[in-house]
Design a protein that fits this description.
By secondary structure, the protein is mostly helical. It has one domain. The protein is 75% helix and 8% strand. The protein is built from two helices and two strands. The chain has a two-stranded antiparallel ribbon. A hairpin with a 2-residue loop joins β1 and β2. α1 crosses α2. The longest helix is centred in the N-terminal third of the chain and has 41 residues. The radius of gyration is 18 Å and the shape is elongated. The chain starts with a helix and ends in a 5-residue tail after the last strand. The relative contact order is 0.12.
């Protein structure tokens, strides 16, 4: 019986943390998409906008600095 509860708990924990990772990737994509759109419409180089976004709202994810929309 304890083994069943442990398995259910493990599945639940993996589901919660797996969903968080997917949401985090979507958040990072949101910034990248917005940067590309603004760079095209304003003629500001994309590389400049990426650097500003990472400086102003960046966070480290898996050892990489990324733009983060929810700061």
């Amino acid at each position: 019986m304890q083994r069943i509860f442990a398995t259910i708990y493990l599945i639940g924990a993996l589901t919660v943390f797996g969903g968080a990772a997917v949401a985090q990737n979507l958040d990072m994509q949101l910034c990248d998409q917005s940067i590309a759109k603004i760079a095209k419409s304003t003629f500001v180089p994309k590389s400049v906008l990426v650097k500003i976004a990472r400086l102003e709202s960046g966070r480290r994810v898996q050892g990489q600095s990324v733009s983060w929309p929810w700061t």
